Every structure is written in C-alpha cells, then in structure tokens.
Task: inverse folding
C-alpha cells in the first residue's frame, strides 16, 4: 500500500454559533474587549472632552490587546496555556538537576524525622510524663491532611490549631519534593520489577516489547498490503483501557567496538599486507553507512490496576496477543525484562557508551541505592542561561537536545515516512503515544463534526443568499471539511477502523548546538515532501523528553485524531538486515548499512547471481572469492570455462 488518504484534523475547524458566525471564544474575546474599552471611552469622552470618533479609537486601542490575547492561538493552544508553560519553564522548572545519590535508607530517615515533627506538634504543651503515658497506652489515630495520611500516637480528634500547624508542615514537605531536584528524581517511574513490569505512575503499570525489522519496502503491492492489514490488526487490538506507545530509534553505538568485525587478523602466509588493505576498505565502508547507529523498535503499553499482581495477570495475556500479532508479520519479538528496560534507559541517557549497566535487583537491599542511581546521566538541565535556552533546548549529561512534535497536514501519505526518518545519520528517538477512543464516542464525535460543518454551510448559504450571490459556492475549506467528515463517519462504521488520539514526538541530541540545529534542519527536509512539519515544543522540553521515554507516560497536551489506517501508515518496517560475522557483499540500498553474511549459517547456503551484462556479476564473485580466501581457511573449488578468474587463482 503506497498511499493512504489521511483523516482531516477537525481540531483546526472553527466551530461557529449558528446565526452569529462567531465561535464562543470570539464572543468572549470581543465582549471582554468591549468591557475593557468602555471605561476608556467614557473617560475620553466625558473627562477629557474628545469627540465621539476619537473616543471610539481610544476604546478600540485599549480593547485590542485584550481581544488579541484571548484569540491568540499557537500549536493548538491559547495564550493562557502558553503563559502557564512559560511560567513553569522560567520560574518553576528552571533548575539544574545534578546527579545526587538518593539512598532509600536516607528516605526512611527523612520519613522518621517528619514523623517526629508531627509528634512535636501534636504533643505541644504536654509534659514528658503525659507523652510517655500516651505512647505506653498504644492508642493511635489516623490523621488526613490533604491527600496525605499518617498515624499519630493519640486517640480521638485534634483541635483546629494543631491541625493548622500540621497542614503547614505537610505543605512544606510537599513543596520540597514537588519539583525534581536531581537527575534521578527527574526520571518518571516509581518501581521497576524484575519481570519487566514498571509502575510508571501510582496504579499505572507498563511493559515494553522489542521487535525486529522485516522485509517490507522491497515487496510488491499484494504482499505489502497483506502485511499492512496485519499491522492494522495489531493497532486495533488495543482497547480504550490500554495506552500504547511506539518508539523507533537511531541509537548511537560504539564505533570502535563494531569496527572490530571488519578487521581481519593476520595469518602465517605472505598476504597480511593485502588483508590490512582489505580491512581498511571495509572499515571505510562501515564509516560511510549508518552502521554506527542501531535501528531499534519498541512497543510500550500501560494499564491501570489495583496492584502489581493484578497488573501481572492481565499483562501476561496482553503480551501473548501482541506476540501473536507481530509473529503474523514475521517479526521476532522479545518481552524486555526489568534489567533490559533499565539498560535501554541507560543507553538513552548515555549514547555510544562502552560501559555496561552494573545493576541487579538485590542492590536496593544491599546498598540502599535505587535503579535510577545506576541509569541517570551526570545531570539534566532545563535552566535558561547564556549557554542554554530552556524554552527550546535541554541538556542531558554532556549532550544538548531538543524535543519537537510532527504536525501532519497531508491529505495523503506514503508508507515510507518512518523509514526515511531513520535514514538520518544522527541520533533520533521517535515516539508515538496513542489512546483508543471508544467506538460509541468516536461515532458521536464524527456525527458532531458533520452536524457542525452542516451548520456552518447553512450559515454560509444564508449569508450568500442575503448578499445576492450563488449560495452553492462554498469556501474550499468548508467543502474539504464536509467531505472529510462524511468519510470519517463511514470509515468508523466499518469494524476494522477505530479512532485514536495520538501525538508524534521526536527527540534529537548532539554534542553541540550547531550539530543539533543541522540535524533538525535535515529532518525538516525529510518531512517536508510528506506535507509534515517539525514544531518545537516551546517551554515543554522537560515534559516532551520524559514523555518520549519508553515508560508509557505522556504529559504532552498536543494531540491529533487518526483512524487505524492513518496510524498504520507510520509502519516502521523496511528490510531485514543481513549482518553477521561473514563475507562482505556491499551496502544495503534501503538502510545504507553494510551487508555481512556467512552463507554456511543460512538455511540454504547456495547462491545464484543474476544481472545485466556489465553490471558487476563477475566482480561480485571475485570479491567473494577474495573475502573467503583472506578471512577463512576454507577450500575453494572454481569451475571457470571462460577463464575470467585465472589471474586470481594463479
């Protein structure tokens, strides 16, 4: 399936009130402007003595800022949200988050210290004998202050003054821990379990599945359509109770480690100089491709459950279904264990590291350290200053990064967009968060969109009739929304189409700001032919970065509606990589990676070379013979009636 007709984004449609032709927001804006402008009009007219025209101009000038602010909209948000995010970025989250060890035994000590403060407040004015008698009695009461509950060694209720002091103590403790103060506290998960289930938020549990690439882009239309339909079935599997997140990444790896695969060790013969020259050629080919970037694919899903045991039982069934869907696609899957999920986070925070994650699930008891102490970078920075603009950038360790979201304008889209994004020769972490809208709600939404479009059309036709021009000449945008609304409604009536709220974010990191900007410019160039644009998450870099992590958490308010087919067009499959310790066969034209294959490891080791005359068949065979000769002790038997390789075997 080469193209898919994308659903129109109805969030951009102006929903006007019939008869007025104005939206509710516009009515509020103009009404607020009039209320603010009337005092200026009266002062100008009565007190200063200006004529009516001048007083009206003063009124308009005073009302304009109010109207402008209330109607200002950018990235789907009005000014009040922009102001809130700006305030949080510059005054609340404007902090440097260094690596600070958070020992769980210190947390216990802090909790005990807080309990002592509570008891001091409760026992205020009581003698030591009275306090000892109360504690000796063993009577306790549970006190609730806000959302916090704690037990005090006192029976009965407490007076208002004491409760007021307790509220101050709780508020102080809450403010102290409200904004993360360290790199570890910034990472948004609560409890990791050894089987791979994470409690990412209170009562919210997540699991991550890794899956491999398959051959897709090279197939003809019929087999591609079959795989596309199976991918749609996987997306449709997720019901409204399951939040799911796809992550596709170019993960940086250690180049020196992988270049070792191309170095041929010397042997006891006279061809070691040839081996060195051939090895240098292979290392050069490795540097040309994207082999220093490992393409990875993950699916993370989350559910709400009463406790870990309840989540574990339900997730076992979900895992089985996901594996079956991906197996039908021909993709190998693997449910990540707790260690593997932590290792993935470790590699995200430490790109191209040569270090290994030194963690096991016995360490909290033995050392008092948490898993975050082992995966966190040296620091996170969301602080504005001369070296970093926290509105548009963030810093993780020694790297600078930026988070953007992909805005889709396209009326139709090709299924190569993810493949093209991952051809970037730079670090890219793409995340797609999605929630399924219940079918009944989706149908009501589609009907509501049609009704509102029809109302707008009727209003437009009424105005046209009154103005004396053709009532059937509708604005092009209105015609587009009408067709899109009807198409969406008919699509949702089919069993294989659902509606989703989704957001697509991209995290890019680099060593320098200039390199990062070049990478962003290159990605914008890739998205432009698809009628998509990269929009920076201004004043939401922390929320965007943490939401992109494979933890199933999404705190970004940007969203767009997609149908199942729309979601499936972001299919992540290209071609199965051929990379093992074997012979060199050239470069993969789709992934731009080196092809290394050992025929003896294949199910069928035989080979047959086809090609037009002069297109390099003989050269390919000669290179394979040379590769086998230089790398292996295998015997070579050549039948050459034409004598094309007589020089190579002489």
Result:
């Amino acid at each position: 399936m080469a193209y898919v007709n994308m659903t129109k984004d109805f969030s951009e449609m102006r929903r006007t009130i019939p008869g007025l032709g104005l939206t509710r927001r516009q009515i509020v804006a103009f009404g607020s402007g009039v209320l603010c402008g009337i005092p200026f009009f009266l002062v100008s007219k009565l007190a200063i003595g200006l004529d009516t025209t001048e007083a009206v101009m003063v009124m308009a000038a005073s009302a304009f800022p109010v109207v402008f602010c209330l109607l200002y909209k950018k990235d789907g948000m009005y000014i009040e949200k922009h102001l809130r995010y700006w305030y949080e970025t510059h005054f609340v989250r404007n902090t440097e988050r260094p690596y600070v060890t958070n020992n769980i035994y210190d947390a216990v000590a802090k909790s005990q210290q807080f309990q002592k403060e509570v008891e001091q407040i409760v026992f205020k004015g009581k003698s030591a004998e009275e306090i000892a008698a109360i504690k000796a009695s063993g009577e306790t009461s549970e006190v609730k202050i806000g959302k916090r509950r704690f037990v005090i060694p006192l029976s009965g209720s407490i007076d208002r003054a004491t409760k007021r002091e307790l509220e101050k103590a709780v508020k102080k403790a809450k403010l102290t821990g409200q904004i993360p103060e360290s790199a570890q506290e910034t990472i948004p998960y609560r409890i990791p379990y050894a089987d791979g289930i994470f409690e990412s938020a209170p009562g919210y549990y997540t699991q991550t599945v890794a899956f491999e690439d398959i051959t897709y882009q090279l197939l003809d239309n019929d087999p591609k359509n079959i795989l596309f339909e199976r991918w749609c079935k996987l997306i449709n599997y997720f019901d409204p109770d399951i939040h799911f997140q796809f992550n596709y990444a170019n993960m940086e790896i250690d180049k020196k480690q992988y270049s070792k695969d191309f170095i041929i060790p010397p042997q006891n013969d006279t061809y070691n100089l040839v081996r060195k020259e051939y090895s240098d050629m292979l290392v050069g080919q490795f540097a040309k491709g994207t082999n220093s970037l490992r393409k990875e694919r993950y699916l993370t899903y989350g559910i709400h459950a009463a406790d870990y045991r309840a989540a574990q039982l339900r997730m076992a069934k979900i895992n089985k279904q996901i594996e079956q869907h991906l197996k039908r696609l021909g993709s190998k899957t693997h449910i990540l264990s707790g260690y593997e999920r932590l290792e993935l986070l470790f590699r995200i925070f430490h790109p191209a590291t040569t270090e290994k994650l030194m963690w096991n699930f016995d360490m909290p008891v033995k050392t008092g350290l948490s898993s975050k102490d082992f995966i966190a970078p040296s620091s996170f920075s969301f602080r504005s200053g001369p070296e970093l603009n926290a509105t548009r950038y963030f810093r993780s360790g020694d790297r600078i990064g930026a988070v953007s979201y992909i805005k889709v304008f396209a009326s139709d889209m090709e299924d190569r967009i993810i493949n093209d994004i991952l051809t970037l020769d730079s670090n890219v972490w793409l995340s797609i968060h999605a929630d399924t809208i219940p079918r009944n709600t989706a149908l009501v939404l589609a009907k509501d969109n049609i009704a509102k479009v029809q109302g707008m059309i009727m209003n437009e036709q009424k105005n046209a009739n009154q103005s004396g021009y053709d009532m059937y000449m509708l604005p092009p945008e209105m015609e587009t929304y009408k067709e899109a609304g009807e198409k969406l409604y008919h699509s949702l009536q089919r069993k294989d189409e659902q509606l989703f709220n989704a957001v697509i974010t991209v995290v890019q990191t680099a060593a320098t700001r200039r390199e990062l900007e070049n990478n962003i410019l290159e990605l914008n160039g890739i998205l432009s032919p698809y009628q998509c644009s990269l929009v920076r998450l201004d004043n939401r870099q922390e929320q965007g970065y943490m939401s992109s992590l494979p933890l199933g958490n999404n705190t970004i308010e940007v969203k767009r509606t997609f149908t199942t087919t729309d979601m499936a067009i972001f299919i992540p499959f290209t071609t199965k990589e051929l990379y093992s310790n074997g012979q060199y066969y050239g470069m993969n034209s789709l992934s731009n990676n080196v092809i290394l294959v050992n025929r003896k490891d294949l199910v069928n080791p035989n080979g047959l070379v086809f090609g037009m005359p002069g297109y390099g068949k003989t050269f390919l065979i000669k290179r394979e013979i040379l590769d086998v000769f230089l790398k292996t002790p295998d015997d070579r038997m050549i039948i050459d009636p034409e004598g094309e390789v007589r020089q190579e075997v002489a």
Summary: Confidence is low (pLDDT under 50) at residues 173-177. DSSP finds 22 helices and 22 strands in the chain. Residues 583-649 form one domain.
